[in-house]
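We both want to read discrete structure tokens more fluently, so let's practise on a single case. Once you have written the record down, we can walk along the chain together.
***
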Amino acid sequence: MMRIIKGKKGFQMISEYLVKIIIVALAFVIIFMIFTSLLSKTDQNTKDAACRASVLLRDKANVKIIDGIWEENKITPLTCPAENLHQLSSDRVKAETTIATAAARCWWRFANGAVTNLFDKEADRKGCMVCAEFSLSPNMDKGVQPALQIYTEPPHEHDRIYMAELMNFFANNIYNSPIFYGGRGLNYFGDIATFTHDYRIKHPVERKTNEIIGAPIASYVRDYSYRLTNDTKSKIDEMGRTLNKNNKGNLLVLVADKFESNSRGDAIKIMESLNMNSKPNQYDAILVMVDVSNRSVRIIMGRDLDYMVKEVDVSAILKTSLDKFNAGDVNGGTLDVVTNLYNKLNGFQQNALVSREGFKTNSYYYYLSNGFKSMPFSQDLQSGYTYYIAFVSDSNKIGLWAKIGGSLIWAGYDKSIALSGTFPEAFVNYFKMASAFEKVSKNYLLIAREDIIGDRCYIQ
């Protein structure tokens, strides 16, 4: 918004702040150029993590130069260079796995679709960004038809992968969750948030990591700070018991004046040293750490819980739970964090399509659709063309889609194509509409031909 201040003083103030605006803009440009240069020399995992960080930063960015004069949102640049996958393997399963993995990484890059209207502030009003490009081999083997067919597949051909076949591959195959969270085979995810209130503890008692590890777990909460009421501790214990009973995670809440370290690494050390995971290779531990002196709250969780709670959900839970911490209420803030996390986990209900249609909660399709709250789209793929895997963040300001009949149409400048055809009966009945897209989410994953997308997408 803009407000004009009259008089010489107003002119001077506007001039001063215009200079500040220019300095801020130049700083972003310089940082972006340096960052882009460094990214060109790094591996794909690092690029994925950097892209995701820039997406989340844009969601949080809000440059306010002066109250009432000028305010601008989402001016931070996205650093998301596209990956060239070249021509895929002639081994059909390998080719489809490459597409599925790249699609899942793209979805992770863009925070699982959590950031809405991502491109609205861009002057040229493009509505998507390319994550990867590829082409098909003209000599693929024909493979076999899958057991679970959400879409009815036509016979396989050597030079193409039909949309129905690709979606069935997404539905039948389990994604490798360690490829996410930076792509380094990590078994845990989470976030940390800081609150503003300074509790000014004169002589904070520091809790050593080894001290925490050395004490057996007697309840679901340890209050080293003596700031939690008995009622709060009782409520946290009850939530912990319920989660454990329902196989929705093993909870431990730690509150201290100060921790020797509440780093991600030490948090994982605590979880694993206390054997918080249910069994080897099953990562379902949940640790909440409240460090009063350092004004921080951390949530870290095992990867096997990510079908119920995503990393972006953890960030949102922390963000919406800070009010009481900011007001000086550790007891109320801790209870809010745990309650909001508990509600997300315990309130999770298996989607009807999972049991009725045979979907797995760790399938590519379930991941790419956020449990059917969004939907991935693809057109039929054929050798001889270049295809883009892109993240779309549509909005009323951009408007990339039109509904015709029961199909979704990509509205290019001079070409249009029905990307998904009519939805299968199961989806139509579940969403109670011809198009799940319109009322569920306008953020989604798209796989389409380069010339169809045209210049509707950003590509770095």
About this structure: The two ends are 30 Å apart (CA to CA). DSSP finds 15 helices and 20 strands in the chain.
